[in-house]
Amino acid sequence: MQKPVSPDYVLPHFDPRSLPFLGAGEPLPPVAALAQTPEALRERFARPPVWTPEIQREPRYAARDAAHAAVLVPIVLREQPTVLLTERTRSLATHSGQVAFPGGRSDPEDADAAATALREAHEEVGLECDGVEVLGTLPVYVTGSSFIVTPVVALVQPPAQLRANPAEVAQIFEVPLRFLLDPAHHRRQSLTWRGQRREWYAMPYQDGPSERFIWGATAGMLRNFYRFMAA
Question: Can you give the pTM of this predicted structure?
Answer without folding.
Answer: 0.90
